[in-house]
Specification:
heterodimer, A: alpha+beta, Heat Shock Protein 90, CBS-domain, B: 114 residues, alpha/beta, 5-stranded mixed beta sheet, 5 helices
Amino acid sequence: MTSNISNIPSSRFKGKIITDKLAGQISRVEELAYILKIKDVMSTSLKTLTPQATMQDVINVLRDYRISGVLIVDNEKLVGLVSTEDLIRCLEKNDKFASVKSYMSTQLTTVNSFDFLTEALKLFTRTGFGRLPVLDENKMLVGIITKYDVTYGLLRALEHEYHEEEVRRYRASHLFEDIESNRTSLVLRYDIKQNDFIHGGEASSQIKRALTRLGASNQLSRRVGIAVYEAEMNLIIHTIHGGSIHVEIEPNQISVYVWDDGPGIEDIEQALKPGFSTATQEIRNLGFGAGMGLNNILRCADEFKITSELGKGTHLVIKFFLKHEDKVGEGYSQNKE
Amino acid sequence: MTLDQIIKTLELRLLTKSADFANQKPLSGYVSDMLSCVMAGAKKRCIWVTLQAHNNIVAVASLLELTAIIITEGAQPDEETIQKANKEGVTLLSTPHNSFYIVGKLWEMGLRDK
C-alpha cells in the first residue's frame, strides 16, 4: 500500500513526490483508502466528446480545460479515450482533422464507482495510467478519477476527521464547566454478559476512550482502564448471570461500581491473595485465572472496597481521586503523560 | 530499534494491516501467557510475546497501548480477532518459533524490560 501511495503528487506540494516515508507518517491514509469509495473522490464534471469529433476538437478541449485526456462517449456509453499520447501520434502524422475514432484507445481500463479507493490505487500502480474512467452499477460513465483526485480526497478526509476529533475533545473537556449544580456527574453504564469472551474488554476500552476525550491524563485513563478490565473479565469468567458496571465521572473523582448476583466469594481475604484463583483449567488455558485480577484493581485504584455474600453476589467500589492536573471535563489540556 | 527492524530480523509474519513500522520504537518487552500478569507488568509501547492467540489479547494490548503482540509457536488468531486488532490499531505478528527463542532474539537486538 505504502508504495502505491508514494507516487501520487500532492495538490499542495505539486511537482514533489510523496515518499514512502512521508506516506508512512500519514498511515491513516492507508486506512482511508479502504473506507472511502471511488465515488467519494472522483470528478463528476466531465469533459467528453462524441466519436464524430475531430482530433482538432480534442486539442481545443485539452487546451481550454487544461486536462490531459478526453473521454469519448456515444449515447451515454463510454466508447473510448484520447490521451496525450494518442494526440502525439496524431500530430506526428499531421493528421489533426482526422476523426477521434482513428486515434482513441478503445481497450479501456475502468473502475467501479462503488469500489474502495484502494482499487483505483492498485490500478494506477499496475498500469501507470494517469486517469481512470469510473462506471456505476449499470456500466454507465459517472466520473473520472485521477491521482490528483485521490490525493485531494484523502487530504480532505484527513482534515475533516482531524477537525471532528478536535471538536469532540474540546466539547467533552469542557463538559462540566458550564453546568451548575451542587454536584454534577456523568454516569456510564455497561451490562456485561457471562461467558462473553468475544466482547471482553470492550467496556474498559470504551471507558478509557471516554476519559481521554474528557481530558483525563493518559496515566489516569490507563489506571481506570486496567481496573475496569479486570472487573469486566471477572464478570465474564466467574458470575452466573454476568453483571453491570457503572462508572461515575465527576471533575475530581471517578467511581466505578460493579455488581453481580452470584455466586459470591467464599473467602475474600484468600481471593485477594496474589496467585489465588478459582478459574477452571479451560479458563486458565485462555490465559485468565492468574489470580492477579483483584490485585491489579487494588494496585490501580486509590480506594477499593469489595463486599460479597455466598449465594447473593459481589459488589466492588473502585475509586480514583483526581489531582488538580488530572481533573476531567473542565477544560484541562489533553495528552498529558 | 524500530518495529520494522524487529519484524525483518526475526522474520515475523504480519497478521494485521501494515502501518508505519519504521517510526514505531518499542521501549521494552514483556513475556507471559497470563493476561492479568500482562496487565500488571507490561508497560506502554512494549512488545508482548505470548502464545495466546484468542480475541482477548487485543483488548489487553489496546488498553495498555502496547506496540505489538508477537504470537509464538505458530498459534493462529481467528479472523474476528484480526479484524478487532485492525479496528483497535493493534499490530499482531506471528512466528513459528517459541517464546524463549523470540525473547532471546529481542534481547540480543537490545530490547530490555526496563
